[in-house]
Design goal:
The protein is mainly α and 270 residues long. The protein has 11 helices and no strands. α6 crosses α10. The radius of gyration is 19 Å and the shape is globular.
C-alpha cells in the first residue's frame, strides 16, 4: 500500500507540472529557448534510455519466465509496438487546432497577434482543445508512471521527472491562447492545471482496474506497452519540440545527457 500511495503521489506531481508551465507564462517575459531545447532533449534521453534498456528488458524477463522463450519474446515485441500504436491512434484523433506538440513561447502571452485575425472565441476554442488533447495524451503517461513506480520506485521517480519536464511547455501551450481569449490569468491557469489531472486519473484507473488482476504476464504486457508509449512520445513530441528551439546542437546534448544521467542512476542502484 505504501508503494501504491507513493506511485499515485508521484503521478500527481508529474501531471501538475502543466501548472508550472502556466505560472512561468505569467511571471516571466522571455522564453529561454536554449534551456527549453536542452530540457526537452534531456527528457527524451531519459525516456528513450530507460524504455529500451530497463523497462523493455524487465517486460521481456517477466514474459519469458511466464510464457516461455519464444512466446515471451513475441508477446514482448507485440506489446511494445502495441503501445506505440495506442499513442499514435490517440494523436490521430486529436483535433489539429489542439495539437499539444505545438509549443508556445511565453513572449506570445503579451505580444500582439502579429497579424493573426483569430478572434477571442477561436483562441478560447484552441486553448480548450489543447487542454483536452494534453489531457488525453497524459492519460497513458499516468499509467506508465504508476506501473513503473509500483515495480521500482527509483525507476518511477526518473520517469515522473522526465514526464514533468515535458509537461511544462504543454502548460504554456494551454495558457497562451486562453489568456489571449479571456485576459484572465485565473482561467488560463485553471485550464492548464486541469489538463494535467488526467495523469493521476490514469494512475488511479490503473490501480482500480489492473491491480486486482496483475499477474506476471499482465505486468510484462503493460511494461512493454509503456516502453513503446514513451519511445513514441520522445520521437514524435519531445525531440521535434527540442529541435524547434535548437541552438548549436543543444537538443542532442540534452538527449545524450539524459541518457547518461539515466544510465548512471541505474548503475548506482544495482
Amino acid at each position: 500500500m505504501d508503494n501504491v500511495l507513493f506511485a499515485l503521489w508521484l503521478t500527481l506531481l508529474a501531471g501538475l507540472a502543466t501548472g508550472i508551465g502556466s505560472v512561468l507564462a505569467f511571471f516571466t517575459s522571455h522564453t529561454n529557448t536554449k534551456f527549453l531545447s536542452l530540457a526537452l532533449g534531456f527528457s527524451a534521453g531519459v525516456m528513450i534510455y530507460v524504455s529500451m534498456i530497463e523497462i523493455f528488458f524487465k517486460a521481456k524477463v517477466a514474459l519469458v519466465a511466464d510464457l516461455g522463450e519464444v512466446p515471451g519474446n513475441w508477446v514482448t515485441v507485440i506489446s511494445f509496438f502495441g503501445g506505440m500504436l495506442l499513442i499514435a491512434l490517440i494523436d490521430k484523433f486529436i483535433p489539429k487546432q489542439g495539437n499539444p506538440h505545438e509549443v508556445k513561447k511565453i513572449e506570445e502571452m503579451n505580444a500582439p497577434l502579429n497579424g493573426n485575425n483569430a478572434s477571442s472565441p477561436d483562441l478560447l476554442k484552441m486553448g480548450t482543445f489543447t487542454a483536452l488533447a494534453i489531457g488525453i495524451h497524459n492519460f497513458p503517461e499516468g499509467i506508465a508512471t504508476f506501473a513503473s513506480a509500483i515495480q521500482d520506485p527509483g525507476l518511477g521517480i526518473a520517469i515522473a521527472f522526465a514526464i514533468a519536464i515535458h509537461n511544462i511547455p504543454e502548460g504554456i501551450a494551454v495558457s497562451v491562447p486562453v489568456y489571449f481569449a479571456t485576459k484572465s490569468k485565473k482561467k488560463a491557469f485553471k485550464l492548464s492545471f486541469l489538463s494535467g489531472l488526467s495523469e493521476p486519473i490514469g494512475a488511479l484507473l490503473a490501480y482500480l482496474v489492473l491491480m486486482p488482476f496483475l499477474t506476471d504476464t499482465l505486468f510484462g504486457i503493460i511494461f512493454a506497452g509503456v516502453a513503446g508509449i514513451m519511445v513514441f512520445i520522445s520521437l514524435d513530441e519531445l525531440l521535434p519540440a527540442a529541435k524547434k528551439y535548437d541552438e548549436a546542437h543543444t537538443s542532442i546534448y540534452g538527449l545524450v545527457g539524459g541518457m547518461a544521467v539515466m544510465a548512471l542512476s541505474l548503475l548506482l542502484f544495482i
